[in-house]
């Protein structure tokens, strides 16, 4: 009897259907490529440190030319980088870059995996990296993915000798070499063997290239292959696919031009049996590597030979026979490769039938225990007989009076006619849709896996659906819950009964954007009430005057009521102390303004406030943060309603500040917190006459990389300075500035930085006005910084620039260009690579004192 795939999924531990994607459709060429891939059993895993580190051309070549199971294991999610497309940093940026990697893999045909390592920012050495990462835990995650995926070959992007330039890069290569050995050793991480078996890859390579080669180095001993070929089924070369894949990394500004023609890739073998000409030399990647595999391979070859691109459904009877063979191989749950191929065979059957199935909800957000209407739409685009037999709603509970929907009779799917079935259900006891790696507090170097995540209840059986750590480890995103399990009956020639085909379909919210068209996003499970503070805002008190703290409540369900309060440190008070609230309707919002102020006895320095809503005795302190960009599915974060609370001694001069946004940051709001009137100025308004009305112009991060208009407005900015204006320019990336000179005098930007946040600072000119007026800057002002002291320091500069401070990472020469100050005409120009864009939103007191002195520069009393 032909059987269902579902009982094997728990043993498989493979990624379930990706969240919030347009349901995939398959062309005839896609199906033929999939049939060919069904007959290839080899596997390769590419390993590096960050999103964008992967070689998308090699991944596209391995997945689509060699037809290998191809994965990319990124140690981190890129949380510590900068964001070129918006204000999200840290956890929000990590979510964006995770989705960008998934979009890249959908383009190039690979699979995506991660470890728990946190991208804590730039690191210069692997030793520094391993002081912050839990090396053994990252290694365990890497070994887990290897044991689960069973790759024949591992390939690293970076060498172990430091030429990769980033400590994370080198660390990823060191870990890959250790994981190559550890994965095959049952004494290493034996707790994993409850779920997977030890696995020894055959070889480990370093994928080198011209950017790593030392001058005069002989590359004749390296293996090489041409990854620049053309795939007629896809209508693209692998260089073209790679460019589209890499261009998904929009938050990093990695839009790439397509490459066509020969493209040599070089490999240095590091471990394993020596390969002569090719990474897979001597490795059997056919079904012959399995017991009685030759007969199955012959069946697949026959399907490929007879495949009719004008009528893919003609391949269904033969595919059913192949699937029956795969089932027998996979039924004991001990052969992950057979299980993977079984899943692929089911997708090919769906594709050959032209089956299109989607499950949509009538709202994008729903609270646990609340009703939601679900519509299942199914379409058969072949002449083959198919019937919609039934739907199981996983993660839902049926509402009273609609149980009959579970027992609906089979509905024939007539060619090209949509059949729909609906049900109104309650979300079960599901956890909120927070990304699993952000559910529990981690450390600066590591995310923490929850012991389990509650996916809700099975609507048919009533049992709880729990995901434990092995089901989460290495996965790029949350499992697709809630989802629907759709059972199709497919005519099976020669069989006494129809073939049962099961499809697992994530429930999504579908809507139509007037510009972008039809869009899908995840059905997100939310708390009954969400508590939102303004994003990335710190509350800074330079005196004891009260400040308004707005707290916005949003109802996750109708009829939610309770009390809202702020938790404050000793010596602080809020007015009112507690506010009762009633939110009658789902999605209703209410903003409550608290007046917060310190008393005379409140301690100076950094603390925090927390907003908490109490509903039916339960406390809620998470808000909701949508992340919406057109190139990735909409994501939701549920951040704690916590904000930095800072009391400091601060004096300032001037009032009106013009701010030119660059890649996006939260500095303008931070300046408003300390009393400045900040105007966001448009590039075309950067004229000397307009700027004359401001006490200073502050230029946002990477503006000289992203604002093309600056190259035409720069003369006006210089004219403003010359007439007595004050300009503060935050860092620009060395590569890709819109003009060669960004200051009044020459300076050369570089990648130099100081990564240790609390690196000791030396005052080169202790009496310089920038360090003394209106605030006396001391070593204490450089304490408590977060994620790098500074970045992209100039490596050389005109003598007309003055240096005022220096610092260095351990063992390195001091860098003096964190702040460069120049007089120009009657005015002043300041370039700073200090990471103020991170420190100000984090409420670091010294950062506020420094930026205030920069804005006040030139306004000190005459001596």
UniProtKB/TrEMBL annotation:
Keyword Transit peptide: no
Xref: Gene3D superfamilies: LmbE-like
Keyword set, alphabetical order: Signal
Listed Pfam families: NPCBM_assoc (PF10633), PIG-L (PF02585)
Domain Alpha-galactosidase NEW3: 561-615
Signal peptide (residue range): 1-20
Protein name, per record: PIG-L family deacetylase
